[in-house]
Amino acid sequence: MATILIIEDESAIRRVLTKILTEESKSYQVVEASDGLEGIELAKDNDYDLILCDIKMPKMDGVEVLTAIKKIKPEIPVVMISGHGDLDTAVNTMRLGAFDYISKPPDLNRLLNTVRNALDRKELVVENKRLKKKVSKNYEMVGESELITIIKNIIEKVAPTEARVLITGENGTGKELVAHWLHEKSNRSNGPFIEVNCAAIPSELIESELFGHVKGSFTGANKDRAGKFEAANGGTIFLDEIGDMSLNAQAKVLRALQENKIQRVGSDRDIKVDVRILAATNKNLKKEIEENKFREDLYHRLAVILLNVPSLNERREDIALLVEHFSNKISTEQGMPVKSFDDKAIKLLQEYDWTGNIRELRNVVERLIILGGKQISEKDVKLFASK
């Protein structure tokens, strides 16, 4: 059940807002505060999903309340309630972190759409934080080879900046891992990390996925929906397999890069976004440009820093460390004793042609852990990891 805090000194407005929200959805639980100080105390002690806050109030005005709440609970979306004379102030509050504002007297549809969008955004942020905790444990760059050391050094230099990075390399080399590390080591690490696999989304839906849409903009658009760029606001968006993105979507991404603005599908309203863009591809984008499949201006916007992730065949000296890492991780996941690999088994694995790169190596290690003996031998590798 979504809990909504209304901070409003006019009792009549509080009653109207409460009635609208509770009649709209039985899943909304509404709590009321009659002034800013009371609202802040409630926000300190409770985890609300959304706060509606008036601008002009006694004791403490809405701008002060918003500033305080963003320090206490920055993840809670705050929607400002503005009178006719407060519109300029309401717009300024969005620069301070307000999700949106609604005018008095509240328009039913405007209010409900804003509340739904804010709750959707909160859900995305919470889910991203949950995943981020897993990411910190599950993503680790393993290796001491010269090539992987160069990658690590570049990440250390680039991550704290706002520079865009284009990550290239074969499938399975760890481009996603590099993107996660760039975010984790950046000044945006406390913000969301939103990943979009451009190859997995049908071309007719990619714009809606990235930029959101308004109700009725196409068949199946039953309500307004925020896109990935909005969800990534204040953090990082990772556009994986960007070489598969349609030219039309590329044009809109270019605008987002140039102006820090997006428009939802079916809307002409600009939405300001503050995101760092990381992109990855296994394609030769310069060749794609020659074939008019990728925009050259977008390429130059994305490729401020070019980072090519080496294939596993180029860093065979890391295979022993990777095998040990995967063996420990997989054994824990499978609830099995950790198995070691003897020297001959490692040597044989180092001689293989790893066309599927690290992803393929992990699969082979998992197969050997499940099917091999107490210690993985050369014989096990020949039996269960033959190429």
TrEMBL record:
Domain Sigma-54 factor interaction residue range list: 141-370
One GO BP annotation of this record: phosphorelay signal transduction system
InterPro entries: AAA+_ATPase, AAA_lid_NorR, CheY-like_superfamily, P-loop_NTPase, Sig_transdc_resp-reg_receiver, Sigma_54_int, Sigma_54_int_dom_ATP-bd_2
Domain Response regulatory: 3-119
GO molecular function terms noted in the UniProt entry: ATP binding
Signal peptide: none
CDD domains the record matches: AAA
SUPFAM superfamilies (UniProt xref): CheY-like (SSF52172), P-loop containing nucleoside triphosphate hydrolases (SSF52540)
Residues modified as 4-aspartylphosphate: 54
Xref: Gene3D superfamilies: 1.10.8.60, 3.40.50.2300, P-loop containing nucleotide triphosphate hydrolases
Keywords: ATP-binding, Nucleotide-binding, Phosphoprotein, Transcription, Transcription regulation, Two-component regulatory system
Pfam families per UniProt: AAA_lid_14 (PF25601), Response_reg (PF00072), Sigma54_activat (PF00158)
Keyword Acetylation attached: no
Name of protein: Response regulator
UniProt source species: Nonlabens agnitus
